[in-house]
Amino acid sequence: MSGQEAKENWEPKIVAIVCNWCTYAGADLAGISRIQYPPNVRIIRVPCTGRINPFYVVKALQEGADGVLVSGCHPGECHYLSGNLSARRKFATLKRFLSYIGLEGDRTIFTWVSASEGERFAKVIKGVTERVTALGPANKLVKKL
Amino acid sequence: MENIQKKLREEAGRLLEEKKVDVIVGYEAGTLPATATPCFITLPEEAQKLVWNSFCTQNLAKFVHDMISQHRNAQKRVKPEDRKKKVVGVVARGCTSRSIVLCLQERQYNRDEVVILGVPCTGYVERKKLSAALGGEEVLEAIVAGDSITVKTPAGEKKLALKDALADCCLTCRFNNPVISDVMLGENAAPMDADREYEEVTAFENLPIEERWAYFEKEMAKCIRCYACRQACPSCYCAICFMDQSQPQWVGIGEDATDTQVFQLMRLYHMVGRCVDCGSCVSVCPMGVDLRKFLKKLDKDGLEMFNNRVGASMEDVPPLSAYSENDKDDFIFNP
Ligand code: SF4
Ligand code: SF4
Ligand code: FES
């Protein structure tokens, strides 16, 4: 494949770090309901968004993810009561800081998807994929292997 | 300042004499002209070594944490009934006292394990800035008087405005007087120019995104990863730093530029609601990396988002140790 072709055929790689109890179940529901969504996400399941070290997000970007999505239960619905509330503060500050140092805001996206929102899960993935595609391949912070 | 130094020596001597503290961490004259260096004294007569002047730079809260945690670890090997408490006295200016407050909020030690000798602060001379203002000439002697500093160099005497030599963090410091103390030495110092504290950050925020990234990349490319910034930082006290972990290895140890960026990014980000802007990291950095540009942003965000000023009051809770149901949700993606 020539460089030009590679560019044209480029598809974003998106890492989705999701909590077991809501978003992962939501993804399951989307699957069972046969709702179509772009195949660009690689899902990583964690017990709760509160368990996500902000470092995971940065590390994913360094290892070549074009975008990172973090999703958990809606505020008030966390299986561990407040995991997502603590996480919200971490992600709010992380997102601001990343954009301050010059990373595009749409490379890191945070949202909530509950277990009954298969439809919303598909919409989120579609939305994220569109935004990251619009940005093109990641070129900041990416380790050349 | 002379006066404060005299009182400090008296007070330190008394505390040691009366065995109110086991050790006092303060500053003594450095080996080079116009420098001061941290020192640890355990005997009353050593109190005469202590100095307090414009060359006292490092945030001593770092050593308070180090000494108490090391002592506590050592005590684990002692029978419970024979365990002893170690009390550390510390010479603390505004930022040092805020670091102590933060450590107390983070339950690193108890209030009765530290005796705070509060000193008013009018800012410290930053070595790299002074050197730049002198065009790299060697400093043979420096005397601060009022708002000017007179420096003897091999080429002769030079008089500079003090503000050209003071650390950036001092110029706009909001807390130059201790926020807590057990003994306050001297009167509170006049306030600094705190209204302009975020000017630099706001200017940077308004740059185009590519310029911001280019600046980050350029600054981090200077870093040689000596970790002096981490060693000096009173908030960097993890027993095992993520940088030193090998399972998992968070950051590669080679020369890759992105590894350095990621190291910096994460060390900086660990300072959300935890950096007191003491400038210790900036002053120890051998490469002159502009760390403050990024640290001050975290401070600004902490204030804007959580109305938090790090270590300003014992009643506060560090923002990332808490949450509220009403925290802003505006960054949440809603397709
Ligand atoms: S002190 Fe400076 S050179 Fe050393 S690791 Fe920190 S930023 Fe890098
Ligand atoms: S990051 Fe630097 S300025 Fe902030 S508390 Fe640590 S040493 Fe002080
Ligand atoms: S369990 Fe889903 S966010 Fe905590």
Task: Describe the structure in brief.
Chain A is an alpha/beta fold. Chain A has 5 helices and 4 strands. Chain A has a single domain, classed as 3-Layer(aba) Sandwich (Rossmann fold), CATH 3.40.50.
Describe the 3D structure.
The complex is a heterodimer of chains A (145) and B (335). Chain A has a single domain, classed as Rossmann fold (3-Layer(aba) Sandwich), CATH 3.40.50. Helices cover 43% and strands 16% of the residues of chain A. Chain A has a 4-stranded parallel β-sheet, with helices on both faces. In chain A, helix 2 packs across helix 5. Chain A is globular. In chain A, 50% of the residues are buried. Chain B is built from 11 helices and 9 strands. Chain B folds into 2 domains: 157 residues, no CATH class; 138 residues, no CATH class. Chain B is globular, with a radius of gyration of 21 Å. In chain B, helix 2 packs parallel to helix 3, helix 6 packs across helix 11 and helix 7 packs across helix 9. In chain B, the strands form 2 sheets. In chain B, strands 1, 2, 3, 4, 5 and 9 form a 6-stranded mixed β-sheet that branches. In chain B, strands 6-7-8 form a 3-stranded antiparallel β-sheet, with no helix packed on it. In chain B, strand 4, helix 3 and strand 5 form a beta-alpha-beta unit. Chain B has 335 residues and is of the alpha/beta class. Chains A and B meet through helix 3, helix 4, strand 4 and helix 5 of A and helix 7, helix 9 and helix 11 of B. The complex binds iron/sulfur cluster (2 copies) and FE2/S2 (inorganic) cluster (FES). The site of one iron/sulfur cluster has 12 residues of chain B, from helix 8.
